[in-house]
Specification:
The chain has an 8-stranded parallel barrel with strand order 9-14-15-16-17-18-19-20. Strands 4-3-5-7-6-8 form a 6-stranded mixed sheet. The chain is globular. Helix 8 (244-260) packs across helix 9 (286-297) and helix 16 (490-497) crosses helix 19 (589-612). The chain has 20 helices and 22 strands. With 663 residues, the protein is α/β, with parallel strands linked by helices. The protein binds 4-O-methyl-beta-D-glucopyranuronic acid. 4-O-methyl-beta-D-glucopyranuronic acid binds at residues 135, 148-149, 190-191, 270, 309, 353, 381.
Length: 663
């Protein structure tokens, strides 16, 4: 399933078979998005023998219509309605965007869209902003390479120090993103280095070219900017957000951005975080900082996404009172109500940093007068770096369904009024995501951002149907079951062989791949597990620990704060316990560590076996790439098992109850 130089991912030509066989009537007027819809249908018809006409035409089987009338009312500019009556399937929208999403919905349904009768159903995205942040550098960074934490080759946008001349692949990316509902992309790293700072001013033309390539698929372009821009680019002596000249500088620069890109989405800012400049240097608050940029964007309807990943990365490991997990809440909750309406606080889903298991950040739900966006990480920095299969759908779904106030309070998916954001896992690799099965993460992200209540398993089904078109395969059941077998539980498997019970990290410092149990134990980054001969874990209780558990609302402060009620999978995140502590599962902590490491490796062996058995049903290039990655995953999983188990055997002196080999 390859088109040109890159994989077709979830839009192989065969996915358009049902649409491409029909007589379609496009009754939608003109406009770039409508032209995109027409192009998609015309291509499909060219391939499968159908026909598409614009206006006129009597006996269409598929009608795609834009209407300003009552039928379109209430759908918003991205929603659509679908109905089927008397042999005609009709998609109705109030504009081109909704029509495009409606068309992709029909593609997902395949032949089902053309069977029987269907009462009118309306579809609207739950979240207005469904965004991917690219941590792409224009210039190759000496340590981070071109894409920071990127595991899929170089950048899709930038090559040889500038925007790619041929943006065909960027357009193809936009198409894939639209098909899963993404509508915003930030095109450069939140760590804005010197070259990249200039994208805001003298190099905005390159950003405009990318925006032109993404626009036909309804995607708005955003830019990461440095808070020090007025100094770095404007030669001002200060970047103080309350300084009149600084504010005027942002206004002028922003006006020029909008001259180049009329529908520009806005800025993304990482300030006072891991060494980036920010308002603290001037004794100003993060609200002062965000609002200065928001004021410049406001006349054009733009938004500033201001990240809350603010913590002390020069921590003294001897100081047990400082807890990195507390930082975002401590910094930001006092500012609730002070942010401009077009300033969105972008909060990482967990309090630390995209670990395999974290509780939901207590900041979410704690700022009722502020628009929050939730940030997840599709790029698998701490979850196997796209060399391991780790489908994150269940993790993200758990986060989105979590109710910070407990009971029947709102879910995270409802509280994320500023949108859902993922750090993208795509690059210029032929398979987009390095590991072909990591495409499932990108797809699932888009679909969950559209509907945070969606069942991730059903989303995975969709992805499998589109990507592998099993109905066209020699053995649809074996193919579908096999794909589910290797993906469904892959996050749980990854968790089993890496850092146990929510304690996090234990990775090699710097690149974060592979085990190093004490890799961050005495580091300034605030990422500790405190294992000694008696026990392990971080006491974050209010009674005896850092007090982090007390940041939670509703029942959670109590649930997490007590060893008795804390869920097993988060026990070592919240508590320091003896190795003999008995989990709810009935196993001791130490035996859990041993058992799950062995289970995790066995599960990878089994997944590798299942994948090998699909060789006759999967495109050879894709099959070979995954098979090769399984060899590395298995090698790495064994390394994790042996290092973690040996470490804890040596610390605790407690033998494995089942007498397996621990080195
Ligand atoms: O997890 C850390 C990563 C950094 C990243 C940072 C962030 C872009 O290791 O590479 O920087 O998070 O989210 O800002």
């Amino acid at each position: 399933m390859r088109t040109g130089d890159f994989d077709a991912a979830w839009l192989p030509p065969a996915a358009f078979r049902a649409v491409g066989r029909r007589r379609t009537l496009l009754r939608a007027g003109d406009g770039p998005l409508v032209d995109t819809v027409h192009g998609e249908v015309a291509d499909a018809c060219g391939r499968f023998g159908g026909r598409v006409v614009r206006d006129g035409g009597e006996d269409a089987e598929l009608v795609l219509e834009v209407t300003g009338g009552p039928a379109g009312a209430g759908l918003g500019d991205e929603g659509f309605a679908l109905a089927r009556r008397g042999g005609t399937t009709t998609v109705t929208a109030s504009g081109g965007r909704g029509l495009l999403y409606g068309l992709f919905h029909v593609v997902r349904l395949g032949e089902d869209a053309f069977r029987g009768e269907r009462p009118r159903e309306e579809h609207r995205p739950a979240l207005a902003v469904r965004m991917l942040d690219h941590w792409d550098n224009v210039a190759v960074h000496p340590v981070m390479g071109q894409v920071e934490r990127g595991y899929a080759g170089g950048s899709l946008f930038w090559a040889d120090g500038r925007a790619r001349g041929d943006l065909g692949r960027v357009r193809a990316y936009g198409r894939l993103l639209a098909a899963c509902g993404v509508n915003a992309v930030a095109v450069n790293n939140v760590n804005v280095h010197e070259t990249e700072a200039h994208l805001l001013t003298d190099r905005i033309g390159e950003v405009a070219a990318i925006a032109d390539a993404l626009r036909p698929y309804g995607i708005r372009t955003h830019l990461s900017v440095t808070f020090a821009a007025p100094m770095v680019l404007g030669s001002l002596p200060t970047a103080d957000p309350l300084d009149a000249a600084v504010r005027a500088w942002w206004r002028g620069a922003t006006a020029r951005v909008y001259e180049a890109i009329g529908d520009f989405g806005g800025y993304v800012v990482k300030a006072d975080s891991e060494g980036r400049p920010g308002p603290f240097a001037y004794g100003r608050s993060h609200a002062d900082g965000a609002n200065a940029l928001a004021a410049a964007l406001e006349p054009y309807g733009g938004t500033v996404h201001w990240r809350t990943f603010v913590y002390d990365h020069h921590q003294d490991w001897r100081d047990r009172s400082t807890d990195r997990a507390r930082a975002a809440y401590d910094h930001f909750t006092p500012l609730d109500g002070e942010f401009a309406p077009n300033a969105v606080l972008q909060v990482k889903h967990g309090p630390m940093d995209f670990q395999v298991r974290e509780p939901v950040s207590p900041l979410i739900g704690a700022m009722p007068r502020t628009r929050l966006a939730v940030e997840v990480q599709a790029t698998q920095e701490y979850t196997g770096q796209q060399r391991h299969v780790c489908w994150l759908g269940p993790m993200w779904s758990e986060v989105l369904r979590f109710r910070p106030e407990g009971g029947s309070g709102p879910r995270v998916g409802e509280l994320a009024r500023g949108g859902l954001v993922a750090v993208s896992n795509a690059g210029d690799d032929p398979f987009w995501t390095g590991h072909p099965l990591a495409q499932a993460n990108l797809y699932t992200f888009g679909r969950l951002a559209w509907d945070p209540r969606a069942d991730p398993g059903a989303v995975l089904d969709e992805w499998i149907r589109l990507t592998f078109t099993p109905e066209r395969s020699a053995d649809p059941v074996r193919l579908t079951d096999g794909l589910h077998a290797v993906l469904d539980g892959s996050w749980a498997t990854y968790e089993k062989y890496t850092a146990p019970l929510g304690v996090g990290f234990m990775v090699q410092p710097g690149h974060h791949y592979g085990p190093s149990v004490d890799g961050y134990e005495y580091s300034p980054w605030g990422t500790y597990h405190f294992a000694d001969r008696d026990g392990v874990g971080v006491d974050r209780s209010t009674a005896t620990g850092t007090g982090y558990a007390g940041q939670y609302a509703g029942p959670w402060a109590e649930v997490y704060g007590s060893v008795e009620t804390c869920p097993d999978e988060l026990l070592l995140f919240f508590h320091h316990v003896p190795y003999g502590h008995v989990l709810h599962s009935g196993r001791t902590v130490i035996q859990h560590i041993y058992d799950t490491r062995f289970e995790g490796v066995a599960e990878v062996e089994e997944a590798r076996r299942v994948w090998a058995g699909l060789a006759d049903l999967v495109d050879p290039a894709r099959h070979a790439r995954v098979a090769e990655r399984y060899e590395e995953q298995l090698r790495s999983a064994r390394e994790w098992r042996d290092q973690v188990n040996s470490y804890f055997l040596r610390k605790s002196g407690v033998p494995d109850a089942r007498g397996r080999t621990i080195h």
